[in-house]
Amino acid sequence: MTYELKIDVSPVYELIDSFMLYVTRKWISNLDIGPDWIRDIDGRIPPQQVSALRQAAEWPFTDYDVLYVWAYRRRPASKVLQFLDELETQSLEECFEQTAPLFPDFTIHECERIKRDYPPLLRLWYEQYFRHAEQKLLPLLIEDASEKKLLESKMGSAALIEYASGGVVIEDIPDLQTVVLLPTIHNRPINMYCFYNTLMIIQYPVDVPSDNEDEPPTVLLRLTKALSDPTRLRLLRYAADDPKTLWELQSVLGQTSDIMMHHLLMLRVAGLLRVHLGSEGEGNERYSVRPDGASDLQMFLESYIRL
């Protein structure tokens, strides 16, 4: 399988990420920023602006797949306001023609709705929150993307994707032409991936360094938390031999799909599980143990306790 790997970085992606998380509250209890981030922003933004932003909570979550494609199609090195200006001035027909080939059932009416409704709210979000965070975050994203580009020549595309994402493995996807790796901070420690007809976008987390060396590193806390549950330990034992589907894991461990997805998320963000993505697309992933995870646990534990 051959595909082109691109490593992209832009404040536009982080703008969309942060807006999505604030509006939808999706995964917020599993993210490093946590619910306190929401409460802090709610306390700083005028109530009428909060209400305006929160109206997007009722809109389809799949809208963000479209927004990420538009961010990917942006002019190189474009800034947030430049991106929004260009999106607003671009004709509906041109916008639809650039987007529709990646979405099998995308309609011009959906394109019109997303193009009309999101830019004003993204501008509001930029003014009220993101412009204050951008200067701190962007250097970290640029630095990490540069490191990954240097590693690509040494590791190869498949190994770099798994390393950067902490376990995403791309298998046989015949029509796949381009994989885009995006560093992200707001979403940490979760990996997000979006399938399109010929394109896959994978967002991988970039950890923010701690100023306090006495505090346990975040990676170590994720590992020990993930391993503290007996069900998750049994899951790792069962998935150690070969990749297992969600249904297979549910059957053996006797858990509902919602509970199982929670356990899988905890193990994935800790870097203990691989997720295998094949031609079946989202919802048909398989999971296997990531051997590097056990090595990471030993390394971070020994480093922290100074063995």
From TrEMBL:
<protein>
    <submittedName>
        <fullName>Transcriptional regulator, ArsR family</fullName>
    </submittedName>
</protein>
<dbReference type="InterPro" id="IPR011991">
    <property type="entry name" value="ArsR-like_HTH"/>
</dbReference>
<dbReference type="InterPro" id="IPR036388">
    <property type="entry name" value="WH-like_DNA-bd_sf"/>
</dbReference>
<dbReference type="InterPro" id="IPR036390">
    <property type="entry name" value="WH_DNA-bd_sf"/>
</dbReference>
<dbReference type="GO" id="GO:0003677">
    <property type="term" value="F:DNA binding"/>
</dbReference>
<keyword id="KW-0238">DNA-binding</keyword>
